[in-house]
Amino acid sequence: MATPDTRTQLLDAAERLFAEHGYRGTSIRAITKLAGANLAAVGYHFGSKAELMAAVARRVVEPIAAAQCAGLDTLLARTPDPPVGELVEAFAGPLFDEMPADDEGGARTSRLIVTILSDPAEEARGWTDAVVDSVRERYFAAFARALPGVSPEELAFRMRGIFTLAAVDRLQAHQQPTPGCEPPVAVEAARRWAITFLAAGMSAPAIQF
User: pTM for the whole thing?
Assistant: First the structure.
């Protein structure tokens, strides 16, 4: 097997350290030390620590977004207005598929997504990706058609809840496996429970103030 190049080694090291210590708690020196690279390598390959954070986030999130996009394409090929439950499964399912609790890579992905959602550093939350943004906008439009009584603000809140529940559940499942359950069974059960729960939440009547 070929040795990873320096750029990949930096991404691997940064993903691990950002997930464990957050953006501000991770120094360029720590990243380059773990990657076995010199201090100038981050600037050479990424330009800055912030751009490295963005590259790490994109590498983790883009496969999820690609699977979400494929799922939505499949639904829309069948009907222009898929029901809420099917939209939730297409949107939430890849989050569980890409974060298996019995896999260290899945655990890192869930830790990093929790970091992206909760880290106070703007660099951790402010990165953008055209592909990810496009997929989110397409789902938002599909959910809006399926839930015409829900305001855009509340719909955005509900969609954020899907990401949060999936990431936190996968992280907890990795840290505290379900007693007596083989990991593949536990993962599939959690996936079905989550989709059923989230579909009910997404379908709930709009909150009236």
Answer: 0.85
For 2, counting Cβ atoms within 10 Å of its Cβ (0-12 exposed, 13-18 middle, 19+ buried), the class is exposed
178-185 long-range CB contacts below 8 Å, 24 or more apart?
183/100, 183/101, 183/102, 184/102
Q: Which two tokens stand for residue 97?
A: 């598929």
The pair of structure tokens assigned to 2 is 């070929």
Q: Which residues, 6 or more positions from 82, have their beta carbon under 8 angstroms from its beta carbon?
A: 75, 76, 90, 142, 146
Residues 21 and 145: their CA atoms lie apart, in Å, by: 40
Across the range 132-155, mean pLDDT stands at 96
CB neighbour class for 40 (10 Å; exposed up to 12, middle 13-18, buried from 19): exposed
The span from the CA of 104 to the CA of 196, in Å, is 26
Going by C-alpha positions, the residue among 203, 61, 72 that lies closest to residue 53 is: 61
Contacts of 195 (CB under 8 A, 6+ apart): 85, 88, 89, 92, 93
